[in-house]
Design a protein that fits this description.
- The chain is mainly alpha-helical and about 80 residues long.
- The protein is built from two helices and no strands.
- It is elongated, with a radius of gyration of 26 Å.
Length: about 80
């Protein structure tokens, strides 16, 4: 059937990219992921600086930092509602 009559066009099978291309893509993806994680870690460090912690003997984990931030925000909200 011709394409004009609603038939399907045959596609040429797609070839897998060359190994060198795949390696470059993987390196680029790894670099993007490193930048993303670095940015996330910087954000957590900044959050740790403003959230009060119980003791300064060790750095809070990401989970603990989020828990402390949530508690701190709740406490500040309640303080505002009291006035």
């Amino acid at each position: 059937m011709s394409p004009m009559r609603g038939g399907t066009k045959r596609k040429t099978p797609e070839r897998a990219p060359a190994p060198l291309v795949m390696k470059k893509r993987r390196l680029a993806a790894n670099a993007r992921e490193r930048r993303r994680m670095h940015s996330l870690n910087v954000a957590f460090d900044r959050l740790r600086d403003v959230v009060p912690s119980i003791g300064n003997d060790r750095k809070l984990s990401k989970y603990e930092t989020l828990q402390m931030a949530q508690s701190y925000i709740t406490a500040l909200s309640e303080l505002l509602l009291r006035d």
